[in-house]
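In the previous chapter we treated chains in isolation. Here, by contrast, the input contains four separate entities that must be folded as one system, with a combined length of 1348 residues.
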Amino acid sequence: MAKDRLNFCVFGAGRIGKLHARNLAVHPRARVSYVVDPVARLASDLAREVGAATAPDAAAALADREINAVVIASSTNTHVDLIAASVRAGKAVLCEKPIDLDIRRVDRCLAELKKHRVPVAIGFNRRFDPTNRAIQAAIGRGEVGEVEQIVITSRDPAPPPLSYIKVSGGLFRDMMIHDFDLARWLLGAEPVEVVAKASCRVDPKIARAGDVDGAMVILKTRNSTLCHINNSRRATYGYDQRVEVFGSKGMVRSDNLRPTAILTSNERATDSRDVLLPFFVERYAQSYRHEIDDFIDAVLSRRKPSVGAEDGRRALLLADAALQSHRTGKTVTVRAG
Amino acid sequence: MAKDRLNFCVFGAGRIGKLHARNLAVHPRARVSYVVDPVARLASDLAREVGAATAPDAAAALADREINAVVIASSTNTHVDLIAASVRAGKAVLCEKPIDLDIRRVDRCLAELKKHRVPVAIGFNRRFDPTNRAIQAAIGRGEVGEVEQIVITSRDPAPPPLSYIKVSGGLFRDMMIHDFDLARWLLGAEPVEVVAKASCRVDPKIARAGDVDGAMVILKTRNSTLCHINNSRRATYGYDQRVEVFGSKGMVRSDNLRPTAILTSNERATDSRDVLLPFFVERYAQSYRHEIDDFIDAVLSRRKPSVGAEDGRRALLLADAALQSHRTGKTVTVRAG
Amino acid sequence: MAKDRLNFCVFGAGRIGKLHARNLAVHPRARVSYVVDPVARLASDLAREVGAATAPDAAAALADREINAVVIASSTNTHVDLIAASVRAGKAVLCEKPIDLDIRRVDRCLAELKKHRVPVAIGFNRRFDPTNRAIQAAIGRGEVGEVEQIVITSRDPAPPPLSYIKVSGGLFRDMMIHDFDLARWLLGAEPVEVVAKASCRVDPKIARAGDVDGAMVILKTRNSTLCHINNSRRATYGYDQRVEVFGSKGMVRSDNLRPTAILTSNERATDSRDVLLPFFVERYAQSYRHEIDDFIDAVLSRRKPSVGAEDGRRALLLADAALQSHRTGKTVTVRAG
Amino acid sequence: MAKDRLNFCVFGAGRIGKLHARNLAVHPRARVSYVVDPVARLASDLAREVGAATAPDAAAALADREINAVVIASSTNTHVDLIAASVRAGKAVLCEKPIDLDIRRVDRCLAELKKHRVPVAIGFNRRFDPTNRAIQAAIGRGEVGEVEQIVITSRDPAPPPLSYIKVSGGLFRDMMIHDFDLARWLLGAEPVEVVAKASCRVDPKIARAGDVDGAMVILKTRNSTLCHINNSRRATYGYDQRVEVFGSKGMVRSDNLRPTAILTSNERATDSRDVLLPFFVERYAQSYRHEIDDFIDAVLSRRKPSVGAEDGRRALLLADAALQSHRTGKTVTVRAG
């Protein structure tokens, strides 16, 4: 492996693939060597933009010994196979969440990973957001004392297309999975009980597709720290992303980010602020850069990635538990075993 | 009844009794005629302060035909009997929450009330807070569209004495009952499902007394509006009282109130604000005045009180449901019938 | 003098007179004995409301030996004579600002006051506002270090009637005089240089009446602390009252107060807040109560009033200097004499 | 000229030169061809980083016909000569503020520029800040109505080295010049009157070097719009950059930017926020990118640069007027003629 620089193959040239490829292209310790996407035109456009080549398929790219690492940003159903192929080829992996929508496939994937000593990171970008990191650091410094309650608010600006909803695995596995990961990270402990309530109030087509578009969950850890998460697929005022951590010494929470810092006052209202950033691409732009940077740093310095495959599995376990609680009305006990 | 002024008897000369008596004493359409408290000294001190007489017991005061109305601010276990005696004597009643800790006694009380055509109001003061009223008015004007999610945060500055905890009925019936009432009022619909998780992290003595000191609840209405409530018996930064109402057109929420509007910046932090108001006496000072004013107005104008005995009963039903859910881990279905 | 209670005569039954009389009426250590106003109906209405008598004129009221103190809230041109008559009659005086619009008459008044040992307070209510007091206390505790710059923003919601403008003494003496007093108090030092720029942008009739409706001023103390004040006679978003104190260790500033603490978010804006409180009666309601309380306390405990006649004179000197600077374009040096 | 891409020479490899060179290096329509700096090592390090060559001096670089544009980020005393040489060589110019500290040299420079039809832009970066642009856009849409008052707060975190102070031209020409430009831009009209007061409270060595470290200014336009600017060389809480525009219909103002959006509450304070961004490199990072982008766009689309040499001259005129007012105590009338 090159001592100071990684050659990447990027799988997937859609929205997230582009985002990662562009961040890699300006990273001083990375280079995009290949872009692979079943839609040839998408692959070649992105490859040209970032100074990379295209490869006809994953196997061809992974066969190139110059490649050190891959970013998997292709559709969810391809993740497990690409992870497996990549680690077998000895390439470090940064895979977008989720690993898979089926916990059994995830378990098999993790079993396979154990046979290889290749770094695998899962793209839970929120852990790399400067505001979330500041909250986590404040907890670490003891500023809130013992963490007793967490409240996570996460609302998308508008629902995705129905075609996406149908293959998404549902709100808990597709959307709230980010909040489950964030909760685990901030709790510093595993939730062992999950209750969930969900609704479909935004668009009845979502219900007909078998999904929900709003939900509230409570998690409880073994030492009785409580965590509430709420999600909605629609917020007219923008992408609403807030975290509140409450403890024995105080509270640390986050406000949303906005495009500018202006405050408007007139005869109807005062100090009105901008609508929020539109969606995750804008809100977590810095996070994606830090995530890539952290991954590159981990691989080059031979340390474990900050967010690993087991984190991906645990978040999915919580999503599955929430879905089950929503359906049964009962507390679901989570055993990570 | 005097056309333009009510003569009151105040039962209970403790913290809340004093608060009500003082508000009545400066109200242009009220007069405190009697203060009754088993502790004679408390009664006579307060009576002197507000220009009232004392009466040896409730019966004596209620026998006075000049009395039009009573405020019941005595200990919870006396509420049901005092309500019954007062309505039988034809006195309008403003009773502090809760009516009783036992839903069967509450049901019997309400059955008794039906026999009389006397106004009975329950002191859920938060409905009279200007900030909460502004939120409710915004909902009423359609500013949030269809209400889809509500988040209520309610944290006391410090736990009450253990002696109080033991007779309080527990966190759900004593503390969260305010939030259940607020939730019902803002939801504009009855919650039909309740799940609750609770913890004892503040003081293990509270657990030994059979109670909890932190809790999270989710309520769900028939049309799938979701409401989260969180409570803690301790917040180092003051009495934390926030409400968030989220809907199809936007969100209305409330910030906490503070003693002053100063913002401090130095080399460690910027725009630091005052710690919150200490507790409910300060935070809801205006609410108590508006509550009394609304009650007097209701009685004098012969309209129904804004918050009635059935509201007291419904809030208790939700508290009981939450307690049961906390114990069983299951969703509890609430049937008001 | 009664040891524990003052009997007041209130001169003036207009907006401010009413405000003071009502605060006195509910004060435990005060009683309104007389209300005097040339408009008999105003006097008798207010007198009835606060349980006082009327007197045909000032002399009659001042002749009553039971009277201990007066509040002068009559028109500005009567202040000097009423102060003089009151102190000669041995009554403690709380006089609304300004003492007079003519510095020579103010000087003669102060010379007269020196002959008597009677407490005289001037009603600069902003010094009694809890937020301003918190700022001043923070300065006192050294939280901003050495005060280097102060910025005072003070904007009325709408201009007063032209008839008032014509007798007001002009914006500097009528409106900014409050800010000059506030500046002196927070600076803890006398401004020695004044520059001013003014404009008439709100209503050209104000210019035709010889006045301005907007102004900006810079004050400089001997040790080079700088203070900026801006005024406008119109702010569509309410009564805008902000203070910022900047120093070697940091900054303390104040936000405006609002009727409620709600925050509204929709597709056009986020966290929009209420328009500001309408005007000084609402914004400084607490200040007026604290001012009266401080005056009563000073008189009863035989200490000097917190804001004295010399403070009234100094603020007028600054207003005169600002007016002169506005007219000449030059720095005006203030010598207190 | 290349149709879609500019080849740049960057003069100056110090802090600002680096910043511009790095922004150019990742700009899709720019390329850094040369870096020129008298300190050879600085030039070669930066050149290597951005993929450029070095040139022995300006003349050598300007002789290269492939070069289309220059960025002048060298020391102030070199600006006029480099601008002249560049325009004579037909290269578009983006020159850091100020053009020069001497208005006569600036006038001669502008006279020279008139002979050439080459775009010259001056680097007043604040006009390209998204928050400032939003304020200006709100004014343009009429949201504040007629602009009546502007308040600009601009405080550096800490004074520059004395060696810099000595050659800086003083606070008005070095620091407040940014605010003068911002004021002209937001006022949409030329200030015709200037008064200034200044102080030296931060460090007496600054006074001994003939400069001041704090100042307050009032500008007045022909139609009596007033603008206040305050500056300090030290703010313990970070780089304080706020703008407030007040008019007949309302107010638009800006809050500061911070590294994260966290809010901390504990027993001492609530909702404390991060200290501000450290200094201009961080605060105006986006502005510098937009500035470069706007310059490139102007040159390639053959439109006038958004901020031209005459803007540089006008800001300096205001700085000179403020300095003169500070020294004389009088209003200084500015005639641009």
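The first strand of chain C starts at residue 6 and ends at 11. Chain C touches chain B through 27 residues (CB under 8 Å). Compare these points with the single-chain example from earlier in the chapter.
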